[in-house]
Structure formats: structure tokens, C-alpha cells
Amino acid sequence: MKEIRKIIAQYDRIDHEKEKVALASVVHLEASGYRRIGARMLVQSSGIWIGGISGGCLEGDALRRSQNAIFKNEPSTVVYDTMDDDKNQIGVGLGCNGRIEVLFNPIDTNDPHNEIEVLRSIQSTTAPRILLKIVSHPNKDHIGKVSLLEANEQSAIAGLDQNEINDFVKEVEGKNKPKLFKAKYDGSGEVSVLLEFIRPETHLVVAGDNYDILAMLGLANELGWRVTVLGKAKKLSKHVYEQAETVLDYGEAPNININAYTAVVLMTHDYKHDLNLLNHFITTQPAYLGILGPKKRFQKIQDELNLNLEQIGFIHSPTGLEIGAESPEEIALSICAEIMAVLRNKKGGSLHFKKGPIHERD
């Protein structure tokens, strides 16, 4: 969501009377790629761009193709093929040996339903959304059109088989990942449609008012997470108020909305605060609930609450991955890495020992 917000912010800064724009987006990937399906790059006719579709080696060519799409006012697709590692092939420096299909689509700024505006409508969503995008179509006017979908909701793209689209939605929701499909069109034709799984922003709730929470806030902001801080106002520095979206007193914890993309980290360094907050947040069932401190402290909390906290899957104590973290910044890195692993349903181990590709394939 961070990249989407950056693209929207740049789009809003443009004088659309003087400049036109296009979106380059990854719509299909075979084998390996630095960026995944759904990666976007906003390109202005002047050559300014933001976002990205690779690790850097495709952006120059994508800039030229985007400008060409703007000039012709028509979409196009290109497949960057680095499977054979041909030294003359664009993308050889990517180091990922894959096929990346990219759609270059000029944006009609007068269309209230263009992709930027549709993304704007979901940038603050608290639940996953499914975005359907037409990648190929007999009528070029339909290419690049987007629609938000839910299971059993009528598609805004006329001519598509609704039952088939519903099946696509269920598959994408089941795997939490995007996919390019071949879809029936008008009963006999065929079009390519991308169904993109868009996650909400991660909401990080940090409980604590000591200096070490600043490292957590800094890293969370870099990751594009929303941050709420619970602490004593008199102890919190101005930097906390600058970096957090919301600052609340410990007693206001019940006012926080918790969902499946919320991570809570208790780092108050105060046993009673942690005990009371843990007792509350257990009932809200966040995706992740981490408790700073040694195992014996966690055991004491468990005994006092007379609960088997070890059996509650979303509780992590001590919080963080084992990377030898010592400083506040290293500890923040350890905790944020574990939060991401939990939210993405990963084990958090070393990729060096993983068998098979980095990203699972269908």
C-alpha cells in the first residue's frame, strides 16, 4: 500500500493541463522476478516517474514505452524475457531469470474510474480487496480498465462470464496472491484479466513511552505501516507525535480498532502495564501480539492470568526473530521482520536453506 500511496501523492502533484501520465504495471510473471505481479510505476510525459517494476534494469525501457503509450494514447504490453540470460536482452542485469509481462496504460485524468482513482478509493481499506484489470481485449478501449470485485458481486466489465469471475475471485482470495486468467468474453471470445489481491496497510500498535519505541516507529514508517502509540503523554517526545498517526493513553486501548492486519507490541518495560494490556488485547485477537522481555517474565504473566498463553497462536514472547539484536534499532528490525513473516504466513527462516523458488508458484 505504501507504493500506491506514493503514486497517488505524485499524481495529485501533477498539473494535468500540462502533463499526461501512464501506469506501467506487472501483470504476469514466470519463474523469477525482483518485483511481483501488481508492482506499478507512474510515468509522466516529462519523464519523471515514481514506483518501479523491477530492481532498476527495466525502468529505463519502461519509461520510454510509457511515454510512447501516452503519445499514441493507447495501451500496450511487452514481455521482458531473461530466461536465457541473453546479453543482448533488456533486463540481463536483473539477475532473476524470468519472464515479466508489463502493461503500459495511459491514464485518462477525466475518467473518475481510472486506475488511480480506484486505488485512491481503497487506500485506507481495512480488509483485502480484489482488483480486476483487463490486460487483453478485442476492443483496445477496454484494455487497462479496472473494477473492484467481491465474490458474487456483478463485474463492471460487460461481457464477462460472472460465474467464471466469481471462481477467479475465490481462487485469488484463497491464495492471497494475484493471478492472470483467461476469461470467456461474450460467450465465445477470450480476454486476459488480472485479479490482484490488495492487502490493507499493516496497523502497528506500540505500547510504551521509553526512547526505544522511536526505532520501532522509524522502521514502521519506512515500511508504510500505520502506527498507533499507547503511552503516558508526559513521557512521550515530540518525535513520537510526529511519526505516529495516533497517540493514546494506556487507558484508551479499548478505543483501538483491531483487525486481521493489526500487530500489537507491548514494550512498556512495566510489568503491570504489560499484564493489563495483554489481558485486553487477547480478547481482540490481533494478527500478532508481541511481548518484549525474557521468557521467565512471560511465564510469570501467564501464571498470574492463569491462562495457557503458549496455546494462543498470535502471541509471541519473547517478541522478534533471533538475529542477535542488541540495540533498539536492531531489536525493532527483529520484531518488524517477525511481524511481516506472520502476516505473510512465513516461517521467517534463512532463504539460503529454502528449497525451491523464493516465491511460491501456482
How would you portray this structure in words?
The protein has 9 helices and 15 strands. By secondary structure, it is of the alpha/beta class. The chain folds into 3 domains: 2-106, no CATH class; 125-198, no CATH class; 203-343, NAD(P)-binding Rossmann-like Domain (Rossmann fold, 3-Layer(aba) Sandwich), CATH 3.40.50.720. A 6-stranded parallel beta sheet has the order 12-11-10-13-14-15, with helices on both faces. A 5-stranded antiparallel beta sheet has the order 3-2-1-5-4, sandwiched between helices. Helix 1 crosses helix 3 (115-122) and helix 5 crosses helix 9 (328-343).
In short:
It is built from 9 helices and 15 strands.
- Number of helical segments with 4 or more residues: 9
The overall pLDDT average reads 85
Between the first and last Cα atoms, what is the distance in angstroms? Answer: 24 Å
Name of the CATH first level of the largest domain: Alpha Beta
Strands across the major sheet, in which order?
A: 12-11-10-13-14-15
The counted number of beta strands is 15
The percentage of residues in β strands lies in 15-25%
When the domains are counted, the total is: 3
Classify the helix fraction into a percent range.
25-40%
Oligomer state equals single chain
Q: What would you give as the CATH superfamily of the largest domain?
A: NAD(P)-binding Rossmann-like Domain
What is Rg? 23 Å
Order of helices and strands: HEEEHEEHEEHEEEHEHEEHEHEH
Structural class: alpha/beta
* Corresponding CATH architecture of the largest domain: 3-Layer(aba) Sandwich
CATH fold category name of the largest domain: Rossmann fold
- What gross morphology would you assign? elongated
